[in-house]
Amino acid sequence: MLLAVLSGFLLAIAAPWLCPLFKDRVGWFMALLPASLFLYFASMLPEVAAHGPQVVEYSWFPALGITLNFLIDGLSLMFALLISGIGTFILIYAGGYLKGHPDLARFYVLILSFMASMMGLVLSENLITLFVFWELTSITSYLLIGFNHEDPAARRSALQGLFVTVAGGLALLAGLIMLGTVAGTYSLSEILNSGEALQDHGLFTAILLCILAGCFTKSAQVPLHFWLPNAMAAPTPVSAYLHSATMVKAGVYLLARLNPAFGEAELWTLMLCLFGGLTMFTGAFMALTHTGLKKMLAYSTIMALGTLVMLIGIGTPTAMIAFACFLFGHSLYKGALFMVAGILDHETGTKDVAAMGGLRGLMPYTAIFAAIAALSLAGLPPLFGFVAKELMLEAVLEAPLLQNLLLVLAVGAGVCVMVVAAVIAIKPFYGPLKPTPKDPHEAPPSMLAGPVVLATLSLLFGLLLFIPESLLIEPVVAAVYGEPVAVSLSLWHGINLPLMLSGLVLLLGIGVFLFWSRIQPQIAILREFLGRFGPEAGYFKIMEGLTKGATWQTSVLQNGKMGNYMIVLVLTTFMLTGYTLMERQGLRLWLDLGGSQVHEWMVAVLLVMAGGVASLTSSRLGAVASMGVLGFSVALVFILFSAPDLGITQVLVETLTVILLVLVLFRLPGFVRLSSTYERVRDAVVALFAGAVVTLLVLAVIEIQYFESISAFHIENSVTLGYGRNIVNVILVDFRALDTLGEIFVLALAAIGVYSMIKFRPEAKEKS
Amino acid sequence: MAYVVGALFAAAIYMMLRRSIVKLVIGLMLLTNAANLLVFVVAGMTRGAPPLIAEGASVPGALVADPLPQALILTAIVIAFGVLAFSVVLIHRAYEVVGTDDLDQMKDTDT
Amino acid sequence: MKSNTLILQTAAIYITPLQLLFSVFLLLRGHDEPGGGFIAGLMASSAFVLYMFSYGVTATRNLFKIVPVDMLALGLILGMISGLPAMFLGQPFLQAQWWDIPLLGDATLKLSTPLIFDIGVYLAVIGTTLMIVVALMESETDHPSGNGD
Q: In chain A, which residues have their Cβ closer than 8 Å to the Cβ of B19?
């Protein structure tokens, strides 16, 4: 199991070496991995269908309660199958699409890592692990969108996607941590069982909103949908895989996953229905405003994501069945359609659907399978998409909230999607042959494999509904709904309201399609309006503001004057210390001179004087000499107060220090008065303030002892355990030897640093 | 003694706020000494009772200076020496390359 | 930098070996009396520095059998090695081990990993100090003007 998740990463590491090895066939070879994963997960299906969810455990950070457990139930298995299954065809497809591309190896590294992350995401049983994989998908997605990194538009889109999803990810992390804290566990299966306790908690609304923010950004819900169409800057295999079939569904996955725990809450239903419904309609409508094939598909993906979110929100058993079917059906036909779009783009050299036509004769297979997939998208019988759409309409009719609004949105979206499907299936392939930048011919088998299989499956499952029914849909519904639901799918439900609605949609759709070429430019104007005032414009405003804010902040805080940094640091430190001190202890000023002797007084005075002279003198020699005096006075203090070792060390170090200073300082210029009097006074005040705080601190600390010193242990055990009578030394070389070891390494580093600075001068390099 | 430490800190920080890089180093040295003394003073000062154990005995006399801070300071002294050597040579190099010892002028030399 | 004072030179000849000897003494008795690796190392380095001041860098360099860098490295390695025996015995890294090796007569040699460790510290300190000072002194000879380049 662990291997199943991590194998993608392993193969990703090996990819750069495999690419030259297999040359053009590398796609086929790479596809072996997801294919075998697909079989592996498929083999688990009957067991999960029969026995329910299973957990595979590996411990990771046991101390933090973070485990690498995997949860296998209908939902995760369905996703795993989609990821591996579609992944197989994508890898094969990419081998043809990016044939001869210089960065093919990089592509495989990224897409395999993505696949593994996605796999980990859907299989994780632990919230933290899930989040780690979640972010991994964001990062790999970023790299894949920016795959053509020499194109500024691709880079910008990639960054945009990253910012939006990662900002959502941050919210999600906050939500998950709160969730984990409230539930007392990070384990998904345990959280799902504690739904009621969660909903009564005060933080519930905050948790819910945070998690929704994360899921909505990832799954491109209105108004944060704009990054997804822009992400189409990625190579088509990436768009087909990440931005329609898998990654964008991660948000949907998490929503579905948490539905058993959250589904009861009214806020959950409201938010999901509202945003899902709006997204569904916006996506479908925006698809009409474009003529670029990939953009159209991207917006129809947004439509699908909105539908899925809405269905989770509705939350009735029918809605759950509809969710499962729609999810499954959408992945099949959308994957196929994206690959078709890629084929068209690859063969004709244009993405604009209005510029293509009459390709049917040249590319018969592409045309047929594009038509099948598009029919499924449009939701026409006898394809699987039809079943999904019927169920969706049925679920909307059951919606507990906003029923009328959702119904209108659903029908509107249905009409738009119908038009989109018709445009994709008919425009490029029928009518008179139009000249295109490239000379089109039928795609190679590696590129056809995906659309053919996926489209065929759409058809097959539509006709033979009993295959997905019990194996796939039922476990998914059980996982999302929280308890098992009997599922029976059929193409023909008799004449009922959903069917009539479908008919209405069909008629309207055909009507709109006939006038499409006339309507399209009209609504495209709307796009321009949205571009100026829509959410994307808001995103750019925010980014601009951020940059400006950062510039301003840098120029204020990082102005390059060492003195300012120091003052800020010193003041902050000592003000905080001083404040705490006053708050906790109050002022303690006392001067206990009892028992101090004359020579001790002298040392103290000497210290203060040396310090004063060192800081005020205007000659370098004076400063160095007073430093020497200071050092030796400190040594005296050590010796007077029972620290012979320290005394000796201090004396020796001081000697060496003075030598060092003499050697170096006198190659530097003498002291010049650089600061103005104002600055001096200011600095003096700051310094005196710091000194005063330290004094108070010392006075306070001497009097109070919060913790029992651990010295007692050292003192008692020095002879018995350490066999030494010099306790200081025993501590150094025995009790705390690791620290000392670290210390001599630091010394060694300092020495090497000094040595290299002196020996390796840039001039010497120039000479040699 | 607390007042002495305070005074040393004040002197050290004053020096570190100066613009001359040489004074910065002197300030650094003052600060190390002050910090060492701080730890030493805070740990309590005992006269004439070094943390040594008489031959044959297994525990020292009743009252003995705290050995732990002493060990810490010993380490600190030597480390401070290393750091000092490093920083002194560093500023020397910086001076050679940049040609000024004024910190405010150095800010423009980032390239 | 080389001083040509006769007094210093004469004194250095006698003081340097004495200081070195004393440093070894400090090192070995460090566990029981004031002393130890740090102090001994500093003592030994100041011995060399004294010699350097009186006879110059080149003469001092010739005095060493090994280069300071190697001394430093040797010290670090010794420090690490002293931690290993405990690991072989299944105890935490650097846990002290003691062996009493009987010598002729009554005396026993108290050999221990802390002693090895202390010697490591000793060597590392000498190596560090000498590396820095030698490098500085040599650069002094390279750039007698002292005003940088």
A: 562-563, 674-675
User: For A656-669, what is the mean pLDDT?
Assistant: 75
Cα C144 to Cα A307, B89, C134, C136: the distances in Å are 82, 16, 15, 12
Residue B41 lies in a domain: yes
Is B54 domain-assigned? no
Greater confidence (C138 vs A449) lies with A449
What's the whole-number average pLDDT of chain A?
79
Interface mutation vs chain B, best among A615, A656, A683, A766, most B CBs within 10 Å: A615
A175 in a structural domain: no
Pair (A579, A660) in one structural domain: yes
Residue A766: which domain range?
711-768
Global pTM value: 0.65
Is C141's pLDDT higher than 60?
A: no
Q: Are residues A278 and A307 in the same domain?
A: yes
B37 found inside a domain:
yes
Q: How many CB atoms lie within 10 A of CB A625?
A: 17
Contact present, A233 and A148 (Cβ < 8 Å): yes
Give me the torsion for CA of A635, A637, A640, A643, rounded to 10°.
Answer: -60
CATH of the domain at B6: 1.10.287.3510
Alpha-helix residue ranges (DSSP H) falling in A586-732: 598-616, 620-640, 644-665, 677-703, 711-722, 727-730
Question: Residue C14: its pLDDT value, please?
Answer: 82
The verdict on a CB contact (< 8 Å) between B78 and A562 is no
d(CA A251, CA A241): 15
State pLDDT tens for residues A3-26: 777 787 878 778 777 777 776 677
Task: Kindly state whether C81 is in contact with chain A, defined as any CB-CB distance less than 8 angstroms.
Answer: no
Predicted complex ipTM? 0.81
In angstroms, the CA B19 to CA A527 distance is 58
Chain C residues in contact with B81 by the CB 8 A cut-off are 129
Give me the total of CB pairs closer than 8 Å, taking one residue from chain A and one from chain C: 143
A756 in C contact zone (CB under 8 Å): no
Domain count across chain A: 3
pLDDT tens per residue, range B4-40: 777 777 777 777 777 677 777 788 888 888 888 888 8
Does residue B101 belong to any structural domain of this protein?
yes
Whether the per-residue pLDDT at C149 is higher than 50: the answer is no
